[in-house]
Amino acid sequence: MTEARVVIYRIVRPLCVALALAGACLCHAQSKHLPVKQHRNTTDTIAAAPDSVRVVLGEAELTGEIVPGDEGVAETPAISEFDRWEEREMVFNPDPTRAVWMSALFPGLGQLYNRRYWKLPIVIGAYMGLGYATSWNNGMLNDYTKAYRDIMDSDPSTNSYMNFFPPNTQESDLDRTWLTNVLQSRKNFYRRNRDLCIIAMVGVYLVAMVDAYVDASLSHFDISPELSMDVAPVLFQETRGLKPAVGLCWALNF
């Protein structure tokens, strides 16, 4: 029993010594990083604080006085002239994508969105003129197509081509070969004019979209107010002769 105690004592004692040394080293390492206590004087109190606080916000300077006995509350600061609210006029900046979609939805709507009201009568007038021309050429095409169809068949009762002549005109006095060629050429002529009017309407539709996009993109294009161009007559001395040449000289200032 005594031998067992001796063995345990020899094992435990080194462990205790090692733990004690490790704890001492750890405490010494931590003591190097501990904050140093600052000793305050008796004057370091709220009574030694300044009576006013100055706050700078950009260009505005606000000063608030601290009331004794109510140190946490400051009076209403004086409003600087730089902090006064002034109503500003909103600058309209159109979106090119929206202008294109509105013009695609209805011709002329993109010009209204860009506030280019004087362009609306141009677009509407172009569509009204081309629409009337398309309708008129299509009506003439139908009449000549029916007349050409009647003169080409063998039914004598179908003679709508006689409506193009005065009432006292006799059908037997007409040259059918000549009349057939005239009706065919007129039919092709009015078909061509109708198709051109339709193509022109599509062109006006696309031009209105492009105009709305370009107008919205360049609505705030920076142009210097000093931009100017001067044109004046000038005399040039030619190298091939003794007489000077007359011309124009232009200068662009920006």
Which secondary structure elements does this structure contain, and how are they paired or packed?
Blueprint: H1 2-31, E1 52-57, E2 60-67, E3 70-74, H2 96-105, H3 109-113, H4 120-152, H5 176-217, E4 228-237, E5 244-253
Antiparallel strand pairs: 1-2, 2-3, 4-5
Q: How would you characterize this protein structure?
A:
By secondary structure, this protein is of the alpha+beta class. 47% of the residues lie in helices and 15% in strands. It has helices spanning 2-31, 96-105, 109-113, 120-152, 176-217; strands at residues 52-57, 60-67, 70-74, 228-237, 244-253. The strands form two sheets. A three-stranded antiparallel beta sheet has the order 1-2-3, with no helix packed on it. A two-stranded antiparallel sheet has the order 4-5. A hairpin with a 2-residue loop joins strand 1 and strand 2. Helix 2 packs antiparallel against helix 5 (176-217) and helix 4 (120-152) packs antiparallel against helix 5 (176-217). The longest helix is centred in the C-terminal third of the chain and has 42 residues, at 176-217. Residues 28-40 and 57-67 have low confidence and may be disordered.
